[in-house]
Design a protein that fits this description.
Catalase HpII,  Chain A, domain 1, binds protoporphyrin IX containing FE, about 500 residues, 10-stranded antiparallel β-sheet, alpha+beta, globular
Length: about 500
Amino acid sequence: MNKKQLTSENGRPIADNQNIQTAGVRGPAMLQDPWFMEKLAHFDREVIPERRMHAKGSGAFGTFTVTNDISQYTRASIFSKIGKKNNCFVRFSTVAGERGAADAERDIRGFAMKFYTDEGNWDLVGNNTPVFFLRDPLKFPDLNHAIKRDPYTNMRSANNNWDFWTLLPEALHQVTITMSPRGIPFSYRHMHGFGSHTYSFYDKDNKRTWVKFHLVTLQGIKNLTDAEAEAIISKDRESHQRDLHEAIEQGNFPRWKMQIQLMSEEEAKTYKINPFDLTKVWYHRDFPLHDVGILELNRNPENYFADVEQAAFNPMNVVEGIGFSPDKMLQGRLFSYGDAQRYRLGVNHNEIPVNKPRCPFHAYHRDGQMRTDGNYGATKGYEPNSYGEWKDNPSKKEPPLKTNGPVYNYDEREYDNDYFTQPGKLWRSMSKEDQKTTCENTARAMGDSELFIKQRHVRNCSYADPDYGKGVAEALGIDYDEALKAEDPAHPSWDPRFSK
Ligand code: HEM
């Protein structure tokens, strides 16, 4: 038999892959042409739902190697000794665009890592910025509705986008980063990555330490201006995909240094900012960076759909020695990812090779659509059982976490209204040239937004630093003093002029 013989899915040789079966040369077509039916039916189902966010992305396999001993803080096996090497898979993405969007857009970049450790998969699903627009996950669907297409025009709307952003004063930190020169990285290789949230480590004695993860690019930071990005997009919508793929093909493997910031539970109680607020950073001078290891990407996926489109990263996937924190945004994400993936890929998405743990695992979950792994065969499907099969292990419990108050829908603005200190510091840390570029990028991005929205943004920036407000007003071509006094139809409660 010809080894390269074309067959149908049931293995039957296909006699004709060029012409459908018809009654007579001119048709009509026959319903009894099984190859034609199979081919079309499969084709009709080839598209799966795209990720709600981060739909456009690129991925690669690689390794993570420990360079420094942090085992006094965590008993996670991935960090157990210097020199230990773990396989990993990383997917980078833009956030707002759909699956066919151009890469070189002004946007946050996703930086999702899956470490196949010998004690389970650890997913660190981060971005290329240390903070985020929100500190309450209830607002996440609104954020996405505001930045994605308008339901009436079916176009992206600067007005919706900036109306929403400017009504969330805590977003200014992230907005400033996105409008800064770092808002369009040259490629995925030339940007940092951040776990962004506060996570926890716990050691062999069950002592907890709060931790933030940083991935520092060893390729150096390199960005695109709006004009450079426009020129690239007009010729190449896949510039980031191309850059990553070609670098790896050429053996020019991109690398990042993993660093961590650590904060004790005692320090967290008295730190001047809420250490679990995703809109704020921990200052490096208060909590310096410690080196941990090197992430290297060195293998392109053989098949994009199999490994990149079907990859399922989930902040819920932690391993012993690494845990969550009270960060409300992180808590919200713990629900959303698995839920989205059960819809996007199905209930057995963890059986897909790119997502499957590389260590022995047994969850007692059975059945469900697309169960292709033998379904645990004849083994017992319940626990406890009298046959010594797969038991839970209380020694793996995390340290207890003290909570600090009655259950309620707290308006955090009543407890912490410092939205502007950190964006102000960020603004003052920029060179004059970068400040000017940030203002110009802002003006271009605000486009045809209504005047009152532009004025509101100028006010927000001025609360961070009057020079920032003035710079944005000038770039927008509007009067700064008028902006400070302008009426605001939303009467935002955090604006001192409208606060009760
Ligand atoms: C993707 C929800 C905040 C980083 C996604 C997806 C959902 C989601 C539903 C698609 C998942 C999939 O289909 O596989 C949320 C919610 C958030 C939130 C509800 C806040 C409450 C964040 C934050 C970060 C982040 C703060 C970074 C620090 C990512 C990345 C991806 C993603 C990198 C793409 C993962 C991949 O490459 O497959 N998010 N997200 N998200 N999110 Fe979030």
